Amino acid sequence: MQQLKNKVAVITGGNSGIGKATAQLFAEEGAQVIITGRRDDVVDQAVADIGHGAIGLVGDVADLAHHQKLADLVKNRFGRLDVYMANAGIINLTTSDKVTPDEYDRHFATNTRGVFFGVQAVAPLIRDGGSIIVTSSLAATKILPDHTVYAGSKAAVAAFARNWAVELKPRKIRVNILSPGPVETAILGKLGVSEADSPAFERHMASLIPVGRMGLPEELARAALFLASEAGSFVNGIELHVDGGMTLA
C-alpha cells in the first residue's frame, strides 16, 4: 500500500542528496512531488530521474519571491499541499575567526531565512492534518570543528519548528525536525573533500559513528517518509536524529 497516495508534497533542495532521495521515495509512495533547486539543468535531470509526474521549480530559497512563486504553483495546480519539507541548505566549514559577513549572511539567508519564509508562504495551503518537516543537522546539537555558523543557522530552524508545532495546533499540522549526521552525498565535494581524499575522509567519519559507517540518502528518505506519513501520525515537535548514533559519541 502506498503511504502517500494522492498526497501533494514539496521538497526544497529536492534536486540532489537527501532531498532527491526523499522525492524519489515519496513519488514511489504515491505522492505528487514538487521539487525546487537553483540550477535548471540539475532540476531537470532530477525530475527525469524521479519520474511519476514530478514537477521542478527553479529558484533560490534565499529569494523570498521564490516562495510566493512556489505557493502560487501549488495553489493553481493542486489547490492544497499535504507535506512540505524545508530541506534546501548550504554549508561551508570555517573557523569563527575566518568567517566573513558575506559568508555568515549566505548561511542564514538560505538555511534559516529561507526556511522561515518558505513555511510562512505555504502554510495557508497545507491541509489540516498535514505535515511539515524541517531539515536541521547533527551540528545543531553536537559541537563539530569549524561548524559554528552552519550550526547556528540549523539550530535556529529547529527552534522554528518547535514553535510552529504549537502555533499550528488548531489545524493539527504536525511539524518535526529531521537531523542528519554525516551522509554520503555530493556535498562532500562542496566541503573541499577531493575524490582522492574521500575514502580516507569517510573512514575517519565512520570511526566517529557507533554504527561504523556514514549514512545513505535513502536512509534519511525513509525517516522523512515516517514523519510525513500516517506511520508518524502521533509524532509532533520532535527532533529525529538519523546519525548512526553519532549524537552519543
From TrEMBL:
Organism annotation: Shinella granuli
The record's section on Pfam families has: adh_short_C2 (PF13561)
* Residue stretches making up the Ketoreductase domain: 7-186
The source's domain of life comes to Bacteria
Q: What is this protein called?
A: NAD(P)-dependent dehydrogenase (Short-subunit alcohol dehydrogenase family)
Identify its protein family: Belongs to the short-chain dehydrogenases/reductases (SDR) family.
